[in-house]
Amino acid sequence: MKNKVWLLTKIQLMRVWNPEFFKGREELRKKRKRFLLLSLGMVGIGALIMFYSALLSFGFVQMGMGDAIPIVMMGVCSLFLIAISFMKSGSTLFGGKNFDMILSLPVTVRQVVLSKILLFYGTDFLVFLAGFLPASIVYAVNMKPGVGEVFNLLVAVVLGPCIPVILSLVLSILVMLLAERLPHKEIFVIVLNVAIFVGILFWTGNISATMDKEALMNMGKALVNGVIFVYPPAGVAFSFLEEGSIWGTLLFSVLSIVLFWGFVTLVSSFYVKINEMFSSKSRTVGKVTYGKESTIRKALLKKEWRRLFSCPIYAMNTLVGYVLMILFGIMVLTMKADTLEGMINIPGIEDQFGGVFPFIIAMFAGIAPMTAPSLSLEGKSRWIMCSLPVKSIEIFRAKITLNLLFAVPSILLCSFCVWIKFPGTAADNILLFVLPIAFSVFTAVFGMVVNVNIPRYDWTQEIQAVKNSASVLICVFTGMFAALTPLMIVMALPAFREVISWSFAIVSVGLSAGLWKWLKKVRLWM
């Protein structure tokens, strides 16, 4: 059984990391380039997580809260895993174009399920390790733990991701089962997934809400209590550190293993039935309708619209930024200025709100453009797109327009909320609307350009194009750092705020025009 599970896991892993990519054959050149870009992006994200984890842990030590590091960081890493994993977990476990082929192999259903969950656990383990390992090292160096404490940390590192992985899988499967019999199940899945994601963020925010006045006198204890209230397994996992008793740690270990294996057993019993349910087409026969006359641009835009809402993982990863942007605007509108300043935790930031908010809104708008994976999602059916009697630029225009149909209204609503709460000078008010819109246009066009140059058509599951593609990683990093860099400069040099902000907006428009001109020269071929 072990050999078969390992072989199945290896087959799935080779779709991402394949030694053949490194051989010198010319036809693999594009795949090798895409793989290297994807690897660099993953390493960059891991390095960023490790840096912030170590920085936060050093801060705890400097404030005399070193004892709180293990529990707080485990809680934060676990909640982070749940938030980023449940959106992709169902797509990873179920579906796929090779479902029938895998089941035709001389393997059991349990071995198939176990291999898929092990691969999912492996990726989440790396994310958890990037966040928890630096914190553990800082804790070990500064707090001088004994043998029992070190064993406790090792158990937490190995088994820490188990419960978050199972919780994310359960949430994803429940959403898919609830939506299965609804007439517009894809839309319901998207709405419910966004609601759960936002709920997890607010759930995480309860960490600070559980700190009463007495607990605030001991900030370390307050953080520990807050994390345990929101994520109780963290307290059980480190009961040895807290109470000197090994039984809680053993209970956490047994509970993690039992939940993991029990979930594998349960899903194996219904795996084929659930897979057939999700992969089956609509059981009802629709009424025949005659096509209405439409322009080329409208027809292409409708096609992109249907594609967005027929793929929940695509919609989730691209729409959640706009949902968070709107919630951010509502939060700013309803929250007191001193409370908002305390949350940002930068002294005097209230005086700089006029220059800060346009870049924050721009970052929300540009961090995950729809255009980054839109061309890749055409997959093996891209021949239809290439054979249409339209110019390639019209196809690109439809994909960019769909992105802006969601970005622009969200920006206007969020900026309007901020403007009501913090009205500034005429220039500040104009920048509050113009800068994010200009940046969203740039990221939409930039995402299209990147995806044209680095497409991924060989996916077997849509999640591979939406999440595990070089074009998406490039656009995420570009959108994040392109907005954060001028934001940091504005905060460091407030006297040059207007010059920097207007320059940023003008450069965004100029780059958009240049990239659009380049797209006009592109021709799509099979």
Describe this structure in words.
With 526 residues, this protein is mainly α. The protein starts with a helix and ends in a 6-residue tail after the last helix. Helix 5 runs antiparallel to helix 13 (247-279), helix 15 (312-334) packs parallel to helix 20 (392-421) and helix 17 (353-366) runs antiparallel to helix 20. The protein contains 24 helices and no strands. The model is unreliable at 208-217 and 281-290 (pLDDT under 50). It has helices at 2-14, 29-62, 69-93, 99-103, 109-143, 147-159, 162-179, 185-209, 213-216, 219-230, 232-237, 239-243, 247-279, 296-310, 312-334, 337-344, 353-366, 371-374, 382-387, 392-421, 426-453, 462-466, 470-492, 497-520. 78% of the residues lie in helices and 0% in strands.
How would the blueprint of this fold be written?
Elements: H1 2-14, H2 29-62, H3 69-93, H4 99-103, H5 109-143, H6 147-159, H7 162-179, H8 185-209, H9 213-216, H10 219-230, H11 232-237, H12 239-243, H13 247-279, H14 296-310, H15 312-334, H16 337-344, H17 353-366, H18 371-374, H19 382-387, H20 392-421, H21 426-453, H22 462-466, H23 470-492, H24 497-520
Q: In terms of quaternary structure, what is this?
A: single chain
Poorly predicted tracts of residues: 208-217, 281-290
Largest sheet: none
The helicity comes to: over 70%
**CA-based shape:** globular
Beta-strand percent range: under 5%
Number of helices: 24
Report the radius of gyration as a whole number of Å. Answer: 25 Å
What is the succession of H and E elements? HHHHHHHHHHHHHHHHHHHHHHHH
Structural class: mainly alpha
Number of strands: 0
Our measurement of the CA-to-CA distance between the termini, rounded to an integer number of angstroms, reads 42 Å
Q: Look at the structure and give the mean pLDDT.
A: 78
